[in-house]
Design a protein that fits this description.
Elements: H1 11-32, H2 52-84, H3 89-103, H4 113-120, H5 128-150
Helix pairs in contact: 1-2, 2-3, 2-5, 3-5
């Protein structure tokens, strides 16, 4: 019988995973931000184009979304997997994706985030915050698979 990867001794792996996500987003910000066009001192209001200030605000709220909401989705899904005693990997991935998809509805609740999404992607028909939630769920499934593999 294998050891449960989500016991109390392995919670430091979750913290390392979310810190790695934050580090990658931070690295991306510092690599891309200097080359973005600086429109004006009021570039926060001109949200129809991706200016530097808009990108910074967008990055901040996505980082908060990944760490706070992603953490909640991760722990709820892991508890659900343990409670239902699910063994198949595809079901684990589907649960994480569905949890991320529904957490995408929370994203517009953060201040200014819906403005950023609607301003940059004004011609896009699909709600991009739902897509971001779905992608976050798929990424969390990857983190879960790595944690599960490393601890067995």
């Amino acid at each position: 019988m294998t050891e449960d990867p989500h016991n109390e001794g392995n919670y430091h792996l979750y913290i390392y995973g979310f810190l790695a996500i934050a580090f990658i987003l931070n690295l991306l910000l510092h690599l891309v931000y200097p080359i973005l066009p600086k429109m004006s001192a009021t570039s926060y209001q001109s949200l129809n184009e991706l200016s530097g200030a808009t990108f910074f605000i967008f990055y901040f709220f996505i980082l908060v979304f990944v760490i706070v909401v992603g953490g909640m989705v991760y722990f709820v899904t892991v508890l659900l997997i343990r409670y239902l005693k699910l063994k198949k990997t595809i079901i684990h991935i589907a649960l994480f994706a569905v949890g991320g998809f529904f957490s995408g509805f929370i994203l517009p609740e953060f201040p200014t985030t819906e403005m950023i999404f609607s301003g940059i992607h004004i011609n896009v028909m699909i709600k991009l915050y739902i897509v971001c939630g779905f992608l976050m769920g798929a990424g969390l499934a990857g983190v879960y698979m790595v944690v599960k593999k490393k601890s067995t």
